[in-house]
Amino acid sequence: MKSSVSARLNADILEEKYALWSEDPSSVDGTWGAFFEGFELGCAQLKPRGAAAATTATSASGPAPDGDLAFYGKVVSLVYNYRTLGHTQADINPIGAPENNPRLALKQFGFTEADLDREASNPFFRDGAKMKLRDMLAALSVTYSGPIGFEFMHIHNTTVRHWVRERIERHALREVDPPNRQYKSLAWLLEAEAFESFVGKKFLGEKRFSLEGGEGAMVILNSILNACPREGVLEIEMGMSHRGRLNVLANFLAKSLPTILFEFTPNYVPDLVAGDGDVKYHLGYEGVRKLEDGEVRVSLAANPSHLEAVNSVVEGKARARQRFIGDDGSTTDRKRVLPILMHGDAAFAGQGSVAEVLNLSQLPGYRTGGTIHIIVNNQIGFTTMPADARSSSYATDVAKMIEAPILHVNGEEPMELYWAGMFALEFRQKFGRDIVIDMYCYRRQGHNETDQAAFTQPHIYRQLEGRDTVGQIYKKKLVAEGVISADEADELDKKIWDRLEDGYKKMLEYEAAGDRTVFSGSTAVAQESYNHAPVPTGISKEVIQRVGKVLTTVPDGFHLHPTLAKRFVPRRIEALEKGGPIDWAFAESLAWGALLLEGNQVRLSGQDCRRGTFSQRHAVFYDSETRERYIPLQNLDENQAKFCVYNSLLSEFAVLGFDYGYSLGAPNMLTMWEAQFGDFSNGCQVIIDQFISSAESKWQTPSDIVLLLPHGYEGMGPEHSSARLERFLQLCAEKNMIVANFTTPAQYFHALRRQKKRGFRKPMIVMTPKSLLTRPEAVSRLDEFGEGSCFQEILPDSMTFDDPSRVNRIIFCTGKVYYDLQAHRKEHDIKNSAIIRIEQLYPFHNEMLEAIISQYPSAAKYVWCQEEPLNMGAWSYIFPRLERVLGQKVRYAGRDRASSPAAGSKAMHYREQKALIDSAFSV
What we know:
Helix content is 41%, strand content 12%. By secondary structure, the protein is an alpha/beta fold.
């Protein structure tokens, strides 16, 4: 058996190489070129004589019908080229006729009309069955240029490619599609069409971003869903943009029809959702679908109008769910939770986040066992035609980067759509890889139902005038073929329409009765309101020592890098013995270790985060001789929670979206994303704006993800100084997230632990340090981590004043600049100025500030000092709040307004820094 498989794979390689050489001799290496040159030379000069010649020919390249090796070589090339290029002339566009590809013309391969009646066979096609060349050509056309165009020859793995090829060719041999499959497909199409028609009539002029013209997507989705139980899938995590979303909610996720209809009425107010709510075609939903063979939980993630933004969020949710149900690779290899992403053609080709998310698919910290991508290819983006929207042949070409099979399917061929869905699921379950279904269809309406599409596509919309819907076309076909009777078809139509009318009637009854509970969405998560109540986050000395010992121990025989062995580890051992000093990275690891022992999982991902951008963390030790890895925090206790730390791909958008999604699916896990430098968060602003800062208000989906953004002015130029603190503060309202800039490792320790110790969840944005990671003053003592200790939103002055009444100036600041202010005060022996640190900028703790400043009754001058330019940093946010508490004007000490975050010259930086520190004590 093994040798047989090997022989087939070798034959597969031979076929591919020969076809490549036939088209371009330079495309294969010299050894193959020499072989094929000799092969064709022999074909041209020799005519086989006798059994010996026949045996030689067969052993070289398989059987040679008619004893003609040259003819056989052409057949090999023909089959290969149809597999490679057949999709280019496939009948996949329901409103356009296919065009023959001249590269697949007979003369391209050297065949004549007389050759059509010659007997041909190819061991790579239909197991070498003999047939006339004309029959082989017809079979190839049916298989590779029919209603599905297949792209799979770009897959390098021959096992995968062989598997795909066999199923494609087996599908082409089918004679009759099962009647029950045809009936189900018809029902799904008619349900989708009736929904759009019904809503359009009941709510004239209301936007719904309909699925009209692309109803075939419901056949794909439902065929996948129905196959899930037998393929072992228990859950589907799904993402899509707004087009067709209401139809999917109604007919795929089975969201309450009265709820969907009520959302169209002018009386709808989302009073069951805390915050502002969102439009109906952005909302998420989840429910359990009961099927013939079992149940499947289906969840559709809420999504803004930023196309493709939700993709990585869904992947993160899926991976979290896989861990939650034990589908994380230990036994079932991520087969029980299936991600499905629906895309538009223009967005799939145009949005760079698509490539970023595809790149996640096989990475250890981010893979989800393969995603099924369904492209509803309307062949337009708003009003932009494909020729203006992409440089590639297909919208799907970007998916070739991960060698995903691509099926271009005619959206008006229900049985092909049904098979494509089942094939995609089977492939995903078999190989744990992504697959793409590109469904060619059209938009029957414009961008929305009030848009006049004929303004920009007059020719297309003349074609669509009076054209039957796909459901009606298919219904007539099944009636004509006797699959169902006309009466059965009419009864199916009536049943679907009656259900819609019944849903509308119930909606009116519920509304009249004032019963709003039926209208609630299942994805909303209620939680208690934010409060400033202190949360005990300290840990016992025993836990500190226990975690610390593991962090400073490596296995016997492990070759730790000399620098770590001589400095990093001994420094930590000494700190544990002497009660400090504890630096930033050590405090972080202690916080994680204590959470792990308490049963909270911890995940950190980001660029180079295992070591840390500044060589501060070393969460993973590498053997300096073998590169074997050792992760101390995975070795605390046999009953500890899971600790995960992953170096990410060089992406911000996809990785932050993934980790945000993970935080939604794993609420008991401390999930963190670290930017290599704070300003790298620029690359994921959509995730921050549309999800992290506003999701709780829009969709009532709380998260407590932590963003670690290195921030601080050290004279290193404009690019890596600022994490753009001002942008996060501008997004703050309704207690939606925490924005902080800590000055001590102990504060960081307590803030991390506080994320898992409160009764509510909020994202936390942390301006993490760079130079403070190693600054001698920026350390904490072990007793600051002990039992009874907690995080403090505002830190009073660390200096003890002999007479606080002599203090007439209070300087407020946040983050690193505190140490520069402190050093200046000490150097100049200033006794009349207090320095107060705002550790948590938002939510702002007014009462704590009032209590602290009350210690200085003689204070008359109040200054806010920051390193950032006047139009950046916290100034615009903080001064109104300070003035409201203080009752008087606050002065500013900092850099002037600037368009760039920082100076490029180190000398200029030091001059500016000195000036702003001086002004804090004199302004």
